[in-house]
Amino acid sequence: MNQNEAIAKPLPTAVSVLIVDDEPGMRSFLNKALSKKFALVETAGSVEEAEQLRSRCHFDLIIVDIRLPGRSGIEWHEALSDEDRRSDIIFMTGYADMEVAIQALRAGASDFIMKPFHLEQMLKAVDRAIERRLLKRENLMLRREVSIGYSSSIIGNSAAMQEVKNIIARVAPTNAVVLIEGESGTGKELVARQLHQLSGRQGPFVPVNCGAIAPELLESELFGHAAGSFTGAKGAREGLFSFASGGTIFLDEIGEMPLKMQTALLRVLEQKAIRPVGSEKEVSIDVRVVAATNRKLADEVEAGHFRRDLFYRLNVLEIQIPPLRDRPEDVVELTHHFTRVLGAELGVRELVWSHEDLSRLQQHDWPGNIRELRNMIERSILLGKPPAEYWKTTIKEVEPGQFGFPLEWPLKDVEKHHVLAVVEAHGGNKSAAARDLGVSRKTLDRKFKEWFGTDSDEEE
Predict the structure, then answer these.
(1) Which end of the chain is more exposed for a tag (fewer CB within 10 A), N or C?
(2) What pTM value is reported for the model?
């Protein structure tokens, strides 16, 4: 490959690069070469300048000299703690020191280049780093999709969740804005994804956590920006609304959105158009908006923290997701679901839950809701037993008709319902269920034959 081929190699332009070197000539040389390939290239002469730039913008790739005034490039890289947004890094040095090279690679460098170097050498290193980064990003998205895929259907047959499913089925085919309210961990994103999947829209589902993006960056992230709209914006960039064209954008934690952005979002919902930061032109969009919050937005409106007009615009259709403590009958189904899924994902033997275990789980308050239940099950599978803190309390006395059977049921129906629940709790293993019930397997087989007119099915 010659130098011209290296320069012409196509790479995504929406890549940001930071060059850190105390030599002005080197900064200018690399800036000129890389600005032809990428939308944002910044330069800094020291770690302090680099930190100032990083506080305003995330960089996909950092090219840094190892020897810098005050602090070495390696020391700086090792001190970076934002794991979720850590940049890929290429170290440069003019000193042929094998120990330093090894130290750089151990610090997680994508590449290590000796000065002086040919431009072709640096461009190849940049290509490799960006390609690896894109591959990591694709793998992360695939893992996320697989993770979501195995639980894309909403688990739970309680009356409250049946109502949620009915609302989703009715409103999904429309283009109406939907507001989902529920405590943290109740599955608001799962409901939003179900709305998208059943909508028939061909575009992507784009989730955005409004509380996780710095307020000064949120407008650019959502609506994009024009070239030159702010320092470092050397090229135009599309926002997430544009990326979601033809699909659904999910604005999670909408209650965290600053008032200024609320005004901009209201205009987007009313005009069905966005205006990128620094642009005078509006761009029409075809995006369905689904919003979610763990706050009571009506209360936020009364407190003056959320715009009343935006609340009414978002609250066209509302879905309230009940907390897990209000639907204990769903805990058993969710427990078996996560046990199967996580057991397969972790590559370990499935945990068998006793009837007493499941009864205790149903009585736990679950302040973290489904997220907490899933976390507990994952820990239980890894430990081989449930965490002790979930078994500190004894089983409460249950008042007649509180959770179980209607008081008017005859005894034979209560017996049948209870036996089937215990068998289900053991994933269909009738021998284990018989032990819990205090009867023989033969007796259990006889009951099944009496109820269904067939012999007991084979155990799973």
Answers:
(1) C
(2) 0.55
